[in-house]
């Protein structure tokens, strides 16, 4: 515990900071080359818009808390679950976060030019991905993100991370339904055949 606990504590702050920088850098690079944003919030006040706002608020809180924890002991304010705050669980959480990060990057690379964050309202030539990881789950990217949220809870078992986990899962499952509606509108019968053949999650 003397080695693992500070390792995981520092890992969390650096990990979430690097995720923010990577996502921002990727989005800016795509915009510079493609001349349109791959990040879509949706119409103001719509369900996808609220999902994105909620996700951003929690992401900012998570980053802030994890960075501050490197320099100050704020765990009593987070409601840490003492029986779960042991090195095997912290280590599993850290490894799950790394696995989630790797899988998300793999899936975004697999999607290539078809990757979007949110629902893209533009009429373009995107393809319906039905093979590879999308032949086993209609939402593998969301599954990877939820695995990361579970990893965060295990790496920092607390009331704070539990609230983040529950809120994250609710937002993602609701967003998945919204995105599937948009895909059904765009691809019609092709998407219906895909929906019948491939499960939403597993």
Automatic annotation (TrEMBL):
<dbReference type="InterPro" id="IPR007318">
    <property type="entry name" value="Phopholipid_MeTrfase"/>
</dbReference>
<protein>
    <submittedName>
        <fullName>Isoprenylcysteine carboxylmethyltransferase family protein</fullName>
    </submittedName>
</protein>
<feature type="transmembrane region" description="Helical">
    <location>
        <begin position="84"/>
        <end position="107"/>
    </location>
</feature>
<dbReference type="GO" id="GO:0032259">
    <property type="term" value="P:methylation"/>
</dbReference>
<dbReference type="GO" id="GO:0008168">
    <property type="term" value="F:methyltransferase activity"/>
</dbReference>
<feature type="transmembrane region" description="Helical">
    <location>
        <begin position="141"/>
        <end position="172"/>
    </location>
</feature>
<dbReference type="GO" id="GO:0012505">
    <property type="term" value="C:endomembrane system"/>
</dbReference>
<dbReference type="Pfam" id="PF04191">
    <property type="entry name" value="PEMT"/>
</dbReference>
<feature type="transmembrane region" description="Helical">
    <location>
        <begin position="54"/>
        <end position="72"/>
    </location>
</feature>
<keyword id="KW-1133">Transmembrane helix</keyword>
<keyword id="KW-0472">Membrane</keyword>
<feature type="transmembrane region" description="Helical">
    <location>
        <begin position="6"/>
        <end position="25"/>
    </location>
</feature>
<keyword id="KW-0812">Transmembrane</keyword>
<keyword id="KW-0808">Transferase</keyword>
<keyword id="KW-0489">Methyltransferase</keyword>
